Amino acid sequence: MTFSLTMSLADLLLLLPEIFLTCWLCLILIVDFAFPRMSKDQLAFLSVGGLVATFACLTWFDVAHISGTLFGNMFVLDRMAIFFKMFVVATTTLVILVSVQYVDRFTFFRGEYYVLVVMSSLGMMFMSSANDLLSLFVSLEFSTLGFYVLVGYLREDLASNEAGLKFFILGVFAAALLAYGISLVYGETGKLVFSEMHLTATSGTIIGFLLIFTALGFKIGAVPFHSWIPDTYHGAPTPVTAFLSLAPKGAALAILLRIFFVALATFKPVWIVLLVAVSILSMTYANIVAIAQRNIKRLLAYSGIAQIGNVLIGLAAGTKMGSDAILFYLLAYLFANIGAFAVVIAVGQAIGSEEIDDYSGLNRRSPFLAFAMLLFLLSLAGVPPLAGFIGKLYIFVAAIKEGLYTLITVALINIVISMYYYLVIVKKMYINEPIDPSPVSISGPMKTVIYVGLAGTLVIGIYPQPFIDWIIDATLMFSNFTTQSTTAIPPTPPFGG
Amino acid sequence: MGEHALLYILFAPFVGALALILVSNRQPLLVRGIAAGSAFVSLIASIFVFYAYDLDKGGFQFVQKFEWSRELGISLHLGVDGIATPLVLASAILLFTGVFVSWHIKDRTKEFYIWLLILAAATIGVFMSLDLFFLYFFYEMSVIPMYLLLGMWGSHTKKYLEMTDPEGLKLRDSVGFILNFGSNSKEYAAMKLVLFLSAFAVVALMGILLIYKYAGLNTFDILVLREQAKLMNIPVLGTTLDKIIWVLIFFGFASIAPLWPLHSWSPVGHAAAPAATSMLHAGVLMKLGHFSIIRVAFEILPDTTREMMPIAAVLCIFSIMYGGFVAFYAKDTKYVIGYSSSSHMGYVFLGMAALNYISLTGAVIYMFAHAMATGMLFAMAGWVYDQTHTRDLPSLGGLSNKMPFISACFIVGCMASIGMPGTVNFIAEIMIIVGSWNKYPLQVIVAVLGIVLTMAYLFKMMRSMFYGPMSQKYSHAHDAVGVVDRLPLLVMITVTVGFGLFPMHLYDVVRSGVNPLIARITQVVPVASHEQDQLNVTREAPESPSKADLTAVPSHLAHVTPHSIRGLE
Question: Mind giving me the DSSP string for A321-364?
Fold first, then answer.
């Protein structure tokens, strides 16, 4: 194959957000070194400034319908890529805002923290645009690199070190699997770009794609590739946990969508079985294990695995509507999850604990935090009128149209199970009395993030139509993708009394 | 006002709740004022709807439709028919009275009223939803406030509080979901209620999703689905699809009704809840079950309903008798009323199961009547609890000296609950019994025995609460003296007795909603020989008034097909 690397300046426009963010990254580094006495808070706001500018640029792309491909189809900028880039950038912005106070806890390298966060974000932006196996590998590793460091950032904390090591070893293992899978697929097909593959079911491609799926399953934390998640989420600095629970999942789902809906479109009856199995396992296992958790971060880790199980239902539906539902669900999940983690950080900062028992009587200590946490948890549980409910319903509607009855039944049962452990936290916050009734104070940036989370959760829940319109446009590329599902029951016979 | 009346009823409590967020807890009077104000707006609007409902026109009125999501086929479609109108009114009355019943709550007053208003608004939302999605939306939305209301302002049972030994302390927080009758904490009650109702709500959701898929119309709109959905005779898993959907919908919603054997959350929940919550809960929340079955199963699957409704007729026997006997032996005031409610809900199921004009009208009126009667009883049990801090019947007694007004009202409440002539409950009960006699004589006998049983346990409870010797520790108990304390009881008594003496308008309204529904259900559709359009002709053809038109119903509303007469007999 040949790469035509001739490109004009106009083509480079497609890379503008990435180029801009790269420059800004260097700027942050320079500022950090040049002004060592500068408050690190200002560095945070500098990073936020760059990210907001990037977001604005992406919004312009979205409104102006700018799209195209670069580097011989390696890099694609379509509306879906823009959606996921906006998702990543928004998450990063919010994560940096919740980090502002937390960073004081680090003894060294406070400035580099922001650089690493923005760097990972940059990697995930490339990941959202990855359109072939090579750029998939490069961007995935690029984004994970920052995370390896960030997870172990609490140098004196053994749990953090353990988390970092565990994440690193398993991450590298997943990378090896990915590389092996890519080599197998390339060896069989001779193609790297998803849309150019004309696949036949040989053992090489099957094993290859299974390995690629394993590596991506590791990224999104689906059972049975989840074993790193609880310990890593628990040990990592909480803002990093929040980051880890959102952005990589989004970026990896962009790639999963491209692989399953573009490269493997003709094999839908085969992969549907795989996805149904993984989805059922993720939801059921995570929800049951979550009941036993005593630490809020571990609980949110398992809840995240269960949410990914829900997202995979949309993938298993394998239709345009399924992909819409995934995007919508991610949007709902973004606000609820970042909000919940913001509350966890705020409470952790005030009372120095992340045990669920220490949330006792939070309603008396800080009605605002308790109320916010209540709404975020209920949104995660899928209670109307919050965003999570619409997200779940959207996914169910997409799946029932494809006749995935078993999957929906399991998902519905899981809603009830998950309701239990979310309500246990609600019980602690609202019903139990506080041991120490001193009020909990919240910093300004933290409050902003919680307000953003609340606004998103409520607005998407009450008036979802503009967001639905947006995501439907974002996945227009899949509108031709309709294969008859194997499990669908034949159409209804005429009415006869 | 006018055509937007439903929006006022639905959104006044929501707006009130939003306004409360901005108010400080340090101004309790302002908090209560806002809650009462928004409940009052809702009440006035629902009274307006009740009397402005056009009997001659029938059908769904005050319809509001806003598109909500094109892709999913959802619109906020509101409207009330003759069945929903009295239930909306009952919810608004109970919300308004509930605000006054909980006037003395000191702990986190603001939060209490916020959740109470959301609970009531969500309940009202179910009654006026003409869209399956929003029906489920409001239904599920009403469950979560219950959790907080029970958990934060509820009360434990006596046995639970008595468990102070180490063994008992361990025992009392374990999750003995079945075996810990009588020794429940409020946390347990709240969790059980939410999990139970959510578990069955998702069963109903599965049914709703199946309707959505197989109708293939890409809409959740009940009015469209009932005309166009073709769900009959699709073979699935050895039976037909419509039966599966019907069972999912029926049992999903029957859990909140609560139909035996799905009732176990309900007495526990009633008992733990604060007075106003119990009122709303037993008064209207439980009716969501019957109402949703009528709205979804009866409207969309009329033919299946006719086939399957005997299930309800069988189960309602157990509901009536089981609830009655447990109420008789229960030693906790709120358990008695809670089990009595779940027993009385069996009557509604009997009225629904018989599927004729009189019994279904009776069932709907009974829902309204029971809301008032049980609201009164819970309000008074709550008052007694607030004064004495116990719900234990044996330790109470002689309170009529201390609270003559409450004890007088209690007699009225008992009379209403038993169904004495002069109360609206009597009318409802007699209609259910008369209407069901032809089809289910056994059940009617059980129902009559149930009335005797009701009399027995309510009088027993009244005796042990208000008469006999009084323990000295209750000497500080006092009566409801102020306007605020007396108003709710007086309102509910007025409504009960008022409609008991002048039931005509209530009857006409309900009848105008029941008529077309029963006409749809009871007509026997000839198998396969009729084409679609002929079917429509039989359903809509105006024919001569039938025997079923026993009373003063606007004549064209009583038009039914000859088949329906056969159904009645």
Answer: HHHHHHHHHHHHHHHHHHHHHHHHHHHHHHHS--BGGGGTTHHH
